[in-house]
Recover the amino acids of this structure.
């Protein structure tokens, strides 16, 4: 079996196929015309570090996520979360839109923690939804406007894109109330990944709300899940392509970025809020993860 590659951006994914897709934000939207290259008609298995939403107006094919297979056809709407093993195949040319974004892009524009406001992004795997014509038409108009704004230069471009992304997310949240057929988890490993994902988000809520004074380590997450740490670590690595420590560090970094951008807290206060004992330890951690200091990131 060939290596399953994880791509951190859609431009990185297309670069693998020698296709250049410019990207300067952790948000993109494109016409599905970009998938019509012959080398992309059937993808190998891969993972992504970003969320993907697809709205398919015409065409046919399928996509897989973990051990699940779903048909894609006219008026299909679906999304995939980071970390899952997935693939797709195009049988008849797709028309529609593909939208990608990361939690880092979304968080500054959400009043509540994302884990509370949009639980489906972090905890659920949802099969493709086949939309009624009126609802599809409504979503399509939003995607069309998003695409136009994405191509424009505007001093408030991020804010404009984020506001429309939130509209899509709230509409998806409402839509899922009538599309509750979840993907059945395939065995204990998949359950462990979902339990860890939920626990990780809830634990960080406790840390930020000062119900916990520090971020747990691998052993403590394993203890909370009643799993031997070695087994826990191997399951997370095998199922997601990332270690438990990488997931924890990514969560710390994401929360730190959100606080640096959308709060007036000092760097020292943010460090303490995230369980660091001092600002120097936090600064070294942040620079290792991002390549810049907290102050430099805040000023960008």
């Amino acid at each position: 079996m060939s290596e399953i590659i994880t791509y951190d951006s859609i431009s990185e994914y297309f670069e693998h196929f020698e296709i250049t897709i410019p990207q300067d934000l952790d948000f993109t939207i494109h016409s599905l015309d970009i998938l019509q290259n012959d080398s992309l008609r059937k993808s190998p298995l891969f993972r992504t570090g970003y969320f993907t939403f697809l709205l398919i107006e015409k065409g046919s094919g399928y996509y897989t996520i973990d051990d699940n297979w779903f048909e894609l056809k006219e008026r299909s709407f679906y999304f995939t979360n980071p970390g899952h093993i997935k693939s797709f195949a195009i049988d008849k040319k797709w028309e529609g839109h593909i939208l990608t974004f990361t939690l880092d892009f979304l968080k500054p524009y959400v009043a509540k923690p994302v884990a509370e406001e949009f639980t489906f992004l972090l905890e659920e795997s949802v099969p493709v939804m086949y939309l009624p014509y009126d609802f599809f038409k409504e979503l399509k108009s939003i995607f069309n406007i998003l695409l136009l704004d994405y191509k424009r230069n505007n001093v408030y471009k991020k804010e404009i894109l984020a506001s429309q992304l939130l509209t899509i997310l709230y509409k998806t949240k409402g839509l899922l109330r009538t599309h509750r057929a979840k993907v059945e988890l395939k065995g204990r490993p998949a359950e462990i990944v979902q339990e860890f994902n939920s626990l990780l988000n809830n634990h960080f809520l406790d840390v930020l709300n000062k119900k916990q004074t520090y971020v747990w380590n691998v052993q403590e997450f394993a203890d909370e899940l009643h799993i031997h740490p070695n087994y826990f670590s191997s399951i997370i690595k095998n199922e997601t392509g990332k270690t438990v420590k990488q997931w924890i560090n990514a969560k710390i970094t994401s929360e730190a970025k959100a606080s640096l951008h959308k709060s007036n807290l000092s760097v020292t206060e943010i460090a303490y809020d995230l369980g660091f004992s001092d600002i120097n330890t936090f600064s070294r951690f942040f620079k290792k993860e991002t390549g810049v200091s907290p102050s430099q990131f805040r000023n960008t």
Observations:
- The longest strand covers residues 86-101.
